[in-house]
Amino acid sequence: MSATGRFAPSPSGDLHIGNLRTALLAWLFARSSGRGFLVRIEDLDRVKEGAAERQLDDLRELGLNWDGQPARQTDRRALYDAAIDGLVTQGRTFECFCTRREILEAPSAPHRPPGAYPGTCHDLTPAERESRRVERNPAIRLRSDVETWTVRDLLHGEVTAGVDDLVLRRGDGVPAYNLAVVVDDGEQGVDQVVRGDDLLTSAPRQAYLAELLGIETPLYAHVPLALNTEGQRLAKRDGAVTYRELTERGIDVFATISGSLGLTGSTPEQLLDTFDPAALPHAPWTFAPPA
Ligand code: GLU
């Protein structure tokens, strides 16, 4: 498959109606442009027992289909390790011994965004690294040689964001999300990334990493998230928000989502007739769970 879109949920719990809306949009973007569509289970972290299967069931209930079996990131560790090892061999990485707390507490610098890596371990000597390795296993960080990177997004236009020395492999040996997502999209032929706009500011650093790995930058479309009636990001604690909860209360989830997008039809295929990426609402969607 040469051109494909994808939906890549983390199986940390049930999908809520906002996640399902993003999945439907990813499907519509892919299928309306003649692309394949993949589902990838991002289970390197934050896994809840049985959640992946429930997520797939809910996507099927919504009428979505995908090509082949969903890939699971935990089955693909060798790919991530090979990409990291390649960057290590090229001298593009360094070992980092900082804890999250040390990074947060590092003195701020004028050009460094809050939470960005302060560069503490960037220039450790071999002897310093040797002695630190006794205390803890290092994370592997990218030796980034740019401060910012720019991507084009179908909804947001040009987006520039900071690129720091991002983690490629955590101290516990688990490949980092940013690395895995870039390797997977490249390896799976994903050339169109449609996902929630909470990841918009991650796109530039992922595109930079793709460039270093010789992977073509995908087309991006970061779609608005669903909000609760207080204007916060919709979450499970907001009440009945999952496919099952809503269906039990007599709510037609598919009709609710397609209506929120201004589309008509009772299956995803039928929505393709009226789907126009240029006409998509850019504002977040407010969802009021039923009482
Ligand atoms: N697994 C990520 C999430 O559920 C999405 C990653 C992506 O779409 O790039 O938030």
From TrEMBL:
Motif 'HIGH' region per UniProt: ranges: 9-19
Statement: the UniProt record of this protein carries the keyword Protein biosynthesis: yes
Residue positions binding Zn(2+): 96, 98, 117, 121
Record has Manganese as a keyword: no
Binding site for ATP: 236
Required co-factors: Zn(2+)
Gene3D superfamilies per the UniProt record, alphabetical: HUPs (3.40.50.620)
Protein name: Glutamyl-Q tRNA(Asp) synthetase
Gene (name only): gluQ
